[in-house]
Design a protein that fits this description.
The protein has 795 residues and is α/β, with parallel strands linked by helices. The chain is built from 28 helices and 16 strands. Strands 7-13-14-5-15-16 form a six-stranded mixed β-sheet, sandwiched between helices. A three-stranded antiparallel β-sheet has the order 2-1-6, covered by helices on one side. Strand 8 and strand 9 form a beta hairpin. The protein is elongated.
């Protein structure tokens, strides 16, 4: 349970050794009390940010490996929290603002992205850059791939295929020699893949030797042929079964008409006029459940109308009709193709050609008769058929005679087949030499083309995948909703104005308005960004929860530096907002606790008042004693600080001293007020006088070592008291936002800081040095500044 968390064990960054930091130590003297909060003051670099990161690390949110952290109980034993408990721990720090608040310029407007939107925006930006890079690489690779596809490019495989075709096509090449071998009128055709039959042919002879051998063998072929060549292709017969009797029976078959409605009579007329195919199409169209309009008249048709129409058509086209039509369709055959060109030298070729023509004409005629019966299945057909089966018998007899004639023809000439085969082999071997060089170049080019194509496909897939990822991210971003009303309510609370800052949803984006006008990112200060982050922080805790229920749950809230130097002008609003929100959570559940850390001393004391008020009211609500811790983080430890014992005055003196050195710039806006408070505390407790008195009391000024200092500091003190009057004693523990020297330059402010320190130093050296204990090179600096004052008075 979260209430068992007493602190955290941290190692790394500012914490060189493992340290147990007990934020909620319940021991108060000899008593055990309930702790509702912890207020921690720490100078810059003390380790506050490290503690915030350690808490996030322990709740599995922060991934930095240099920091190790675990939650511990009051006995410093490691405490394992459930995932649900960890989900109720919320940390606000600078990293939270950076992660959850982002502004993006869009035209004249500023788009605000909060929480998950920021993460999505960063991912979208990354994916967009990746997509652009992939697109550039993809386009460049596409150019490369297309170059490999151009047949006129030497790096293209097609270029080398074309060269191999050229090497095979000419009269003196493979195609010309093959023409001579076969006795054709034209060179043999060379296709894009013809080269493949030559690439693996082995030979021990040179190309020149093969050419000589080819010419000698060709001469032998001519002598053997005696002017004619054998017809090598055998004549085949046509094997088709054709039953005219069955066809005539089907044509004369009468199918009884069913009893039909008026519409069905119309459909029947369509069937009888040769439109049965159209009716079948109607069944297919209106059986489709997706069809809602008639494809002919474009009128809407209901589901019932379609069903009724389909039933009517099916009634007209009954199963008997379908079977009858199917039986007829079996007898529709294609015309017969038969190549008789190889046998043109034979006498019976003309007869075969004549019979083939008659057969195809008969098939064509019979097909038309059969189709007419298919289109009008109800009416018997009395047309006669051509005798296809008889023509088939005559044609096959003629083909048999043609084959016999071919055999006799071949017997009359010499057997040249072995010579032709030998010539073909020699010719192929010569072709192997002719394409060998181009083929090797083709292989290299094809391998490179494949590699480039694979690279292109990979880039294409990566581009498509990245595009899908980007589309999904953008779709998710459009669906992310932010609790704008709650955030605007919080902004109103801080700025005391409903229009000073407002987030509005416009055109699918959240835009930032100031007094009703759009802002650009450059017009938004760091402090204003921090305030928006703080408002979103509290709104996000209650995300997807009813407000009345959300506050009743147990939480651990960690807030690091809620008020920075950028927020100083809105300090009152932010402090009021923190008081309001912390009260809602602490009063909603008695086990909810808060940790607030700050490097700003005035903020520390204001937060003490906040915690004091909250614990007092909490006791009344729950009738249970509770208290909060006040700590200073120093040397990797939490040092308990009592508000009544803390030497605030020493802190004020150190702030003024560091500012005089050019440091502590975060106090630039309030340094005048701090200097005045420091001097007033000194004059009150040392001399029981106010600033005005100490600057005019001659007995006090007489304590200064030289008259020149007396005159100088008397005038300096009059300049100081011009900005409002003296503070009361009790006001020395409050640092309100009364800005001092707001119209004076930074260098003048630092000069004034040096002079005030010199004034106190010259009056009570030991006093000032004791309060500046721990600072570097104190006396040398003070003596140097005093010498500068004296020198300026003498000039």
């Amino acid at each position: 349970m979260l209430k068992d968390v007493a602190g955290i064990r941290v190692c790394g960054a500012n914490f060189e050794n493992p340290s147990n930091i007990l934020f909620f130590d319940p021991h108060s003297g000899n008593k055990i009390k309930k702790v509702s909060g912890s207020l921690i003051y720490g100078r810059n670099g003390a380790g506050k940010s490290t503690l915030a990161k350690a808490i996030k690390k322990a709740k599995d949110e922060f991934q930095e490996t240099s920091i190790q952290a675990d939650f511990v109980d009051l006995n410093n034993s490691t405490l394992e929290l459930s995932s649900d408990d960890k989900s109720h721990i919320f940390v606000f720090d600078e990293e939270y603002v950076d992660k959850n608040v982002k502004f993006q310029e869009s035209g004249l407007s500023t788009i605000v992205m909060l929480g998950h939107q920021v993460e999505l925006a960063e991912k979208i930006q990354t994916e967009q850059k990746n997509l652009e890079a992939l697109k550039a690489a993809y386009d460049a690779q596409e150019v490369v791939v297309k170059t490999f596809e151009k047949s006129d490019s030497e790096i293209s495989p097609m270029y080398h295929v074309k060269k191999m075709r050229w090497a095979l096509q000419g009269d003196d090449c493979w195609a010309g020699r093959d023409k001579l071998i076969k006795g054709n009128r034209q060179n043999t055709a060379v296709h894009s893949d013809t080269y493949k039959q030559f690439i693996a042919l082995p030979t021990s002879k040179t190309r020149d030797q093969l050419i000589v051998e080819f010419n000698e063998t060709l001469k032998s072929l001519r002598e053997a042929q005696q002017g004619d060549a054998a017809i090598l292709d055998a004549v085949s017969t046509i094997n088709i079964c054709y039953n005219e009797e069955e066809i005539l029976r089907l044509l004369k078959t009468k199918i009884e008409k069913p009893k039909l409605s008026e519409r069905e009579h119309y459909l029947l007329e369509l069937a009888q006029t040769g439109n049965a195919t159209q009716l079948n199409n109607m069944i297919a169209v209106f059986s489709d459940k997706n069809v809602c309009t008639c494809p002919m008249c474009m009128q809407s048709v209901s589901k019932e109308y379609k069903q009724d129409l389909v039933q009517s058509v099916q009634k007209v086209l009954s199963k008997t009709v379908e079977d009858h039509q199917a039986s007829l369709c079996k007898f529709i055959i294609s015309e017969i193709e038969f190549d008789l060109s190889p046998f043109m030298k034979l006498a019976n070729t003309d007869l075969c050609s004549k019979l083939l023509l008659e057969l195809n004409n008969a098939i064509k005629y019979n097909n038309l008769v059969i189709q007419s019966k298919i289109d009008d299945p109800y009416t018997p057909c009395e047309q006669q058929l051509h005798a296809v089966s008889n023509l088939l018998i005559e044609l096959n007899d003629a083909l048999d005679k043609l084959e016999c004639e071919r055999i006799e023809y071949n017997k009359e000439i010499a057997d040249t087949k072995p010579i032709v085969e030998r010539l073909t082999k020699i010719n192929n071997q010569i072709a192997h030499f002719d394409i060998q060089d181009s083929y090797l170049r083709y292989l290299a080019s094809a391998a490179q083309a494949k590699k480039e194509q694979e690279k292109f496909v990979e880039l294409q897939n990566n581009f498509a995948q990245t595009k899908r990822c980007l589309d999904e991210l953008e779709a998710t971003q459009r669906n992310v909703r932010v609790a704008v009303s709650i955030i605007n309510k919080n902004l109103n609370y801080i700025f005391f104005s409903p229009t000073r800052f407002k987030i509005d949803y416009q055109n699918g984006n959240y835009v930032l308005l100031s007094n009703g006008k759009v802002l650009r990112p450059s017009q938004i200060s760091q402090g204003e960004r921090n305030i928006i982050g703080l408002c979103y922080f509290f709104a996000s805790i209650l995300q997807n929860q009813e407000e009345s229920i959300g506050y009743t749950k147990e939480y651990l809230l960690v807030i690091d530096d809620p008020i920075s130097s950028f927020d100083i002008e809105n300090k009152t609003g932010i402090m009021s907002f923190l008081r309001y929100q912390l009260g809602k959570f602490l009063f909603g559940n008695k086990d909810t606790r808060a940790i607030i850390m700050t490097h700003d001393l005035p903020t520390y004391y204001d937060l003490e008042k906040v915690f004091k008020e909250l614990t007092t009211k909490s006791e009344k609500i729950y009738s249970e004693k509770t208290f909060y811790h006040s700590y200073e983080l120093r040397n990797q430890k939490l040092i308990a600080v009592s508000s009544c014992k803390r030497q605030e005055y020493s802190e004020l003196v150190k702030i003024v001293y560091n500012y005089a050195l050019g440091d502590a710039t975060e106090y630039e806006l309030v340094i005048g007020n701090i200097m005045r408070q420091m001097l007033e505390a000194f004059s009150t407790f040392q001399y029981k006088k106010g600033i005005g008195d100490i600057s005019t009391d001659q007995s006090i000024l007489a304590l200064l070592p030289e008259n020149i200092y007396q005159t100088y500091f008397e005038n300096l003190m009059y300049r100081l008291i011009l900005n409002n009057g003296s503070h009361r004693l009790e006001q020395t523990q409050s640092m309100s936002d009364m800005y001092f020297f707001t119209v004076i330059s930074d260098s003048e402010k630092r000069r004034t800081a040096k002079e005030i320190l010199c004034f106190v130093y010259l009056l009570n050296k030991k006093h000032l040095l004791s309060h500046l204990e721990g600072c570097a090179d104190i006396e040398n600096n003070l003596q140097h500044w005093c010498a500068d004052i004296k020198k300026s008075c003498l000039e």
